[in-house]
Each structure stands twice: as structure tokens, then as C-alpha cells.
Amino acid sequence: MDIHIVTLFPDLFTSPLKESILGKAQERGVVRVAIHDLRDHTEGKHRVADDAPYGGGVGMVLKPEPIIRCLEAISAEAGPATVVLLTPQGTPFSQEMAKRLAKEERLVLLCGRYEGVDERIRLHYTDLEVSIGDYVLAGGEIPALVVLDSTVRLLPGVVGEERSIQEDSFEAGLLDHPHYTRPVEVEGLEVPGVLLSGDHEAIRLWRRKESLRRTRARRPDLFASAPLTDEDRELLKEIEAEEAEAG
Ligand code: 6GU
Question: Residues with Cβ within 6 A of ligand 1?
């Protein structure tokens, strides 16, 4: 997969791209990431990439021409790409969207800044607009890293065990269960006994139940679309009985 990032702040990407899963995925050749500095596509010695909004008002707007030139340079060099604009007005990002993006051959992540990008870019040069949540960030760079991280880790051969992806929070439409590692006791705090039992079926049931318990407590909205089995419904009844007893 080829990912092109278009930004006014290329340095924001250096260290996140070097480390961890994103670094490894590039080393392994699973993904190639190219950073494009919008200022390289501006005109004049001041390399101006933004301008005041028509109609007046506060803030600045990203000028259209440098973006158009940059996108055209990318498609001329690399070929056609799906262009994703990072903006607080976009569609809320989700695991589903990460899965969809992971199927693309070539992506452009266009980082908005200031009050936004010229509307003509949004209308005619982007395929998808994405927001990472209901809060305002100074620009689309951190959201681009969020999209990049969650998409790249889904590519085959990036995360060591395929199974560990299937068991992630959200993959089954539920939150993940708790995890424990050694030692068995720390500061008087113990690991739940069932995890030490060696009884794989009991462990599976415990994990599923805790996953349901957490989802019920923290994100009951997820039940609206999570596929639940008869066993899940039984476990949920047990949880409800336990909670009622605990008051
Ligand atoms: Cl994609 N951009 C900005 N500037 N703020 C955001 C966002 C994006 N998603 C949530 N907040």
C-alpha cells in the first residue's frame, strides 16, 4: 500500500513514522509512506499556503492551488489515489472505515489547518472526509497519524499474529476483555484464578463475559450493532443478576 501525506508540517510525522508498527511495516515493505510539504507547491519567495476568507471573518483558509498542484504531482508520479481530507466536519472515523481504507492501493491523507481548506478542494478533489471525534484539533496531522496507524496495522504481515487483531476491541463490535501478565500477585493484587486454571473453555467464557460486562458498563451503544449469540445473552443475564445483587 502507498500512503501520501500532504501537510504544512512534515516534521510532525518523522518520529511517529520511524517507531513501532508504522516503522516495522515500512521496513517490511508492506507500506510506503511519502510526506509532501504543501509549501513546496506554493508560489513566491514567502511560500504562502493560506489566505484570508472571502466574505471576511477570523482565521485563514488553505489556498486551493498549492493543494491542487501537490495532488497532481502525486497522481502524475504514483498514479490515481483515494483522497481523504482530515477535517472536524468529516465522517466519524471507525474500525469499519479503517478496514475499508486498508483495502485501498493508494491513499492521500490531506491535512487541513486553520479554519479549513478552500471549499472547491473539498468538493472536487477529495473522495472522503474524516474526523476522529467531536473535539477540535489545530490541524489534520494528528488525525492523519490516527488513520495511518489504525489502517496500516490491519495490513497482512504487520501485526505479528492475525488473531490478535481479531480479538481487538471493536473487531467483534464489543470492547476487549481485561488482560493480565506475570506476576500472579503484585502489591497484594491477584490475577483472576480462572486465567491460571488451564481450562480453555472456562477462560474463553470468562473473557467473553468480561468483554460483555465492560461494553455494558461503558459503551452500551455498541450493543445496537454488535452481533450477539445465545451464549452472549445468557452471559448478559448473569451479569445483570450479579450487578443487581451487588446493588
Ligand atoms: Cl480530522 N481535524 C481537526 N482539525 N480537528 C479534529 C479532527 C480533524 N477530528 C477531530 N477533531
Answer: 86-88, 90, 112, 130-133, 135-137, 139-140, 143
Element (H, E) at 166: helix 162-166
Find the 138 Cα to ligand 1 centroid distance in Å: 7
Residue 163 falls inside a structural domain = no
**Can you say whether the dihedral through the CA atoms of 36, 157, 100, 227 is positive or negative?**
negative
Number of domains in the chain: 2
**Pairing status of strand 50-51 against strand 32-37:** unpaired
Average pLDDT, the chain: 96
- Statement: residue 130 has pLDDT above 90: yes
Return the pLDDT at 16.
97
Confidence at residue 171, expressed as pLDDT on a 0 to 100 scale: 77
**143 CA to centre of ligand 1 in angstroms:** 6
Atom of ligand 1 nearest to the CA of 113: 4
pLDDT at 243: 96
Question: What is the span of the domain harbouring residue 80?
Answer: 2-152
- Domain end, chosen from 118, 152, 186, is at 152
